[in-house]
Automatic annotation (TrEMBL):
Function: Catalyzes the ATP-dependent amidation of deamido-NAD to form NAD. Uses L-glutamine as a nitrogen source.
InterPro entries cross-referenced by the UniProt entry: C-N_Hydrolase, C-N_Hydrolase_sf, Gln-dep_NAD_synthase, NAD/GMP_synthase, NAD_synthase, Rossmann-like_a/b/a_fold
Binding site for ATP: T485
Stated name of the protein: Glutamine-dependent NAD(+) synthetase
Gene from which this protein is expressed: nadE_2
Reaction(s) catalysed (UniProt annotation): deamido-NAD(+) + L-glutamine + ATP + H2O = L-glutamate + AMP + diphosphate + NAD(+) + H(+)
GO molecular function: ATP binding; glutaminase activity; NAD+ synthase (glutamine-hydrolyzing) activity; NAD+ synthase activity
UniProt-listed Pfam families: CN_hydrolase (PF00795), NAD_synthase (PF02540)
Organism: Gimesia fumaroli
């Protein structure tokens, strides 16, 4: 029986942070060594960070990454370690994994399948490697092989799939299996999306079963570069059995996941597979013989405890709470801002943003403890002197309620009560006089009094815009990040005021639809994460009908009257934008999905959506950076491209009207 202790390391890296990235890699190698591991798999492009974007094309970045690799080689005594970096070879740049054994570089495996859809743009920088080719690359006078290599460590064979390689139909695993590889390492930079972890589990389990291997999967962790969040997912499986699953969405810089692999058992299980036909193996030329023997170890039980929330009844709500809290924490410390400022309206959107900052603190303190948590924010003056969440939160979160004559007592009470319950600093400003001053100045300039019959939208917008300078001023005074509070449903139809509720340097909820946000706030009110508990004060928010409160109170303004029911709006958005359904087809589907509404009403709402969608692309282009949390994002910079000027679906809408 040959046993190998295998470790994955999820790392919270930052693009081009050479010192920080190296420190995390060194910590991972040292911790894995302390645990008795002999094989360590680190994430894709962990040396540079995955999100370097066009900086990958800098010769200086490429050269520095290679030098960092060489500097790390001496740390691998007695270990096998995989490291990811960009590598320039033959006139092209490749996304590579380097395998090092006992202080010797063995070779480089280049990624075959590049991620080029959704938020990923790898083909902009990298070339895909031709799986049939093996080449030599010279580094400081020495030649190393590069290609789809098989590393033979005195009989233990190791191969690679790099992230997207495993998700493609023509994946390296098939050829590796036929070549009797024992372990396949998958260093990844796989972005977080709701429900994706279950897909990963199936991928890793089925890969290990179908190919008769031990499959080792690791991932990046945290908000690496601003928009994309990595959950640090780590999975180790053998012959269809899950050996270990790592903790996700950790606030730590390094998270190890370890398993004991029985190489002989894996081989015996592979020998039983009808699909295993070793005589078909054609990768002999790709094999790299290694004078390294894995040390003999005794059987032991390795504990990898998975939090209960991973399999609970509210996984999506839990994922949202933990993902955005971690993303905000990383954004705060990596941008070196000194806190957050939110224009708290008393409604659902700004309440959600404030609660997420509260979760950042509560979850971070629970996992890291006060000392370690505050050490990550050591650049904030005098923060380290504080001891409790109640002392820390008002330093990190300032909430402002800005009233006009159209604001209600209900929303003001909700905003004040929420800020108090969270422990945030609370400021109240009355901006009605500023609204009136602008209205009077413009009325005089245009030669008539502005009024609600003729100037409805303009009079609504000036109230929202007047709130921006004050909250920006407070954010500047506090050297803090101003959080915009517009959601994805509003982004779809432009139901937001540019330079009003969209003002901010970061928009943490603009990737989330309003229907889910309201459901999540109810969950936070009643349940919440185990580590934090619930927030009953959110009842004051949840019982309200969503309203912008920009028209006079006697108008009874509500969001759904201005737009359409939110559940319908979100369904239309997905069908129209994600699934690219034409208006006429969408109308036919809507009559089946929403029989409670009259066909004429559905037609009116669908037409309203397409007109507003087309008219407001310019607004989506101007949104502050947002977090990507699902595969239905509307961010034109990372996911959903649409022309600013277009025909607006006029012909298609005419065809839909003809059905009535």
């Amino acid at each position: 029986m040959q046993l190998i202790k295998v470790t994955t390391a999820a790392l919270n890296q930052t693009p081009l942070d050479w010192e920080g990235n190296v420190t995390h890699i060194q910590s991972a190698i040292a911790a894995a060594r302390d645990q008795g591991a002999s094989l360590i798999c680190l994430p894709e492009l962990c040396i540079t960070g995955y999100g370097c974007e066009d900086a990958f094309l800098s010769v200086g970045v490429q050269q520095r990454a290679l030098q960092v690799l060489l500097d790390l080689v001496p740390l691998t005594e007695g270990l096998v370690v995989s490291l990811g970096l960009p590598l320039f070879h033959g006139g092209a740049l490749y996304n590579c994994a380097c395998l090092i054994a006992d202080q010797q570089i063995l070779g480089f495996v280049a990624k075959n399948q590049l991620a080029g859809e959704g938020i990923h743009y790898e083909p902009r920088w990298f070339k895909p490697w031709d799986a049939r080719q093996v080449s030599e690359i010279e580094i400081q006078g020495r030649s190393y092989p590069i290609g789809n290599l098989i590393f033979d460590c005195k009989g233990v064979r190791i191969g690679f799939e790099i992230c997207e390689d495993a998700w493609a139909s023509h994946r390296p695993a098939h050829a590796l299996s036929q070549a009797a590889v024992d372990l396949i390492l998958n260093p990844s930079a796989s972005h977080f999306a709701f429900g994706k972890q279950e897909i990963r589990r199936r991928l890793v389990l089925e890969s290990s079963r179908a190919y008769g291997v031990t499959y080792v999967y690791t991932n990046l962790l945290g908000n690496e570069a601003g928009r994309i969040i990595y959950d640090g997912a780590a999975l180790i499986a053998s012959s269809g059995k899950l050996l270990a699953e790592g903790r996700r969405l950790s606030f730590a810089d390094v998270v190890l996941t370890t398993a004991i692999v029985d190489v002989d058992l894996t081989r015996m299980n592979r020998a039983r597979l009808m699909s295993f036909q070793p005589q078909q193996a054609h990768l002999t030329a790709n094999r790299v013989a290694v004078l390294f023997s894995f040390p003999d170890i005794e059987p032991e039980t390795v504990q990898n405890k998975i939090p209960m929330w991973e399999h609970g009844p509210a996984v999506k709500e839990e994922e949202f709470a933990r993902t955005i809290a971690l993303a905000l924490f990383d954004y705060l410390r990596k941008s070196r801002a000194k806190g957050f400022v939110i224009s708290l309206s008393g409604g659902a959107d700004s309440a959600a943003a404030a609660v997420l900052v509260w979760l950042l603190l509560k979850l971070g303190l629970d996992e890291l403890g006060t000392e370690k948590f505050l050490s990550k924010l050591a650049y904030i003056e005098r923060l380290a002197e504080l001891k409790t969440a109640e002392q820390i939160l008002p330093r990190l979160l300032t909430c402002m309620y800005q009233a006009t004559r159209n604001s209600s007592e209900t929303t003001e009470q909700a905003a004040a009560s929420l800020a108090e319950a969270l422990g945030a600093e609370y400021l109240r400003l009355d901006v009605d006089s500023i609204v009136e001053a602008y209205t009077d100045i413009v009325s005089e300039a245009v030669g008539r009094d502005l009024n609600w019959d003729e100037d409805d939208i303009a009079l609504q917008n000036i109230q929202a815009r007047v709130r921006a300078p004050g909250v920006w001023l407070v954010a500047n005074v506090r050297d803090s990040l101003l959080l915009a509070t517009s959601n994805r449903s509003e982004a779809a139809v432009g139901y937001t005021t540019m330079d009003g509720d969209t003002c901010g340097g970061l928009s943490p909820i603009s990737g989330i639809d309003k229907a889910f946000l309201r459901r999540w706030l109810n969950w936070m009110c009643e349940t919440g994460p185990r580590e934090t508990g619930n927030l009953p004060v959110l009842d004051l928010i949840n019982l309200q009908e969503p309203t912008a409160e920009l028209r006079p109170q006697n108008a009874g303004q509500t969001d759904e009257q201005d737009l359409m029911p939110y559940d319908l709006l979100d369904w239309v958005e997905r069908a129209a934008i994600r699934d690219k359904q034409a208006p006429v087809d969408l109308f036919r589907m809507a009559r089946v999905e929403f029989p409670e509404y009259a066909p004429a009403q559905l037609e009116d709402w669908i037409e309203r959506f397409f007109r507003l969608w087309s008219r407001n692309q310019w607004k989506r282009e101007r949104y502050a950076p947002s977090f990507h949390v699902d595969d239905e994002n509307l961010d034109p910079k990372t996911w959903c491209r649409f022309p600013i000027l277009s025909g607006g679906f006029e012909q298609e809408l005419s065809e839909m009207r003809d059905l009535l």
